[in-house]
Design goal:
Blueprint: H1 9-45, H2 47-51, H3 61-70, H4 77-111, H5 115-118, H6 127-152, H7 159-187
Helix pairs in contact: 1-4, 1-6, 1-7, 3-4, 6-7
C-alpha cells in the first residue's frame, strides 16, 4: 500500500502521460517540419540529395517496372527510384507531422478536462524539458554526425534526409534546453 510520501507506480502513470505526451507530439510535429526542409532541399539540390542511392545499387527489372509505374516520366530506373523514394520521404514525414498536430490538439483539448494529471506534484519541475532536450540533442548529434561523415566521404546521395532531420532536431534541442535552463533557475 502506497503512503503519501511514497506514491505507487500506478499513481505516477497520469503524471507521466501529462509530462511525456506533449514531447511525443512535438517530436512528431518536428518530423513533419523536417519534411518541409526535405522539399526545400530537394528543390534546391535535387531529389538525389534527399533520396538517391549509392552508385553501386542495382535494381531488378521487376523493381524498375514498379518505379516506372509511379514515375513514367523518369529517364532511367535510377531516377525513377530516386523520385519514388523522395515522394515516400515527403509523404511519411508529412503524415507524421499531421499525427503530431493531432496529438497536441487532443492533449491540450483534454488537459482542461483531466485536471488530475496536470495538477500532480509527483513529477519534478524540469523533468519534461530534461527528457525532451536529451532526446532532441541525441537525435541532432546522431543525424548531423552521420550526415557529416557521409558528406565528408564525398557521398551526398541521400544525405539531405539526415541533414533535414538533424537541423530540426537541433532547433528542438535548443528550445527545450532553453526551457530546461528556465526550469532549473526557477527551482534554484
Amino acid at each position: 500500500m502506497a503512503s503519501q510520501n511514497h506514491p505507487s507506480l500506478l499513481s505516477l502513470i497520469p503524471s507521466l502521460i501529462h509530462a511525456l505526451v506533449p514531447i511525443g507530439g512535438v517530436i512528431f510535429l518536428a518530423i513533419g517540419f523536417s519534411g518541409l526542409l526535405v522539399v526545400g532541399f530537394g528543390s534546391v539540390f535535387g531529389k538525389d540529395f534527399i533520396s538517391g542511392e549509392r552508385a553501386d545499387v542495382v535494381y531488378t527489372s521487376e523493381r524498375c517496372a514498379d518505379y516506372f509505374e509511379f514515375h513514367p516520366e523518369a529517364q532511367d530506373c535510377r531516377s525513377a527510384a530516386t523520385a519514388h523514394h523522395y515522394d515516400e520521404v515527403v509523404d511519411i514525414r508529412g503524415g507524421i507531422g499531421v499525427l503530431g498536430a493531432i496529438v497536441l490538439i487532443a492533449y491540450y483539448g483534454l488537459r482542461r478536462r483531466l485536471k488530475w494529471a496536470s495538477d500532480s506534484k509527483l513529477i519534478p519541475k524540469g523533468f519534461s524539458s530534461t527528457v525532451a532536450a536529451s532526446l532532441c540533442g541525441a537525435a541532432a548529434l546522431l543525424l548531423l554526425g552521420v550526415f557529416a561523415m557521409q558528406a565528408g566521404f564525398g557521398n551526398t546521395s541521400g544525405a539531405g534526409v539526415l541533414l533535414s532531420g538533424g537541423l530540426v532536431s537541433a532547433v528542438a534541442f535548443l528550445a527545450y534546453a532553453t526551457q530546461l535552463s528556465r526550469d532549473l533557475l526557477r527551482s534554484a
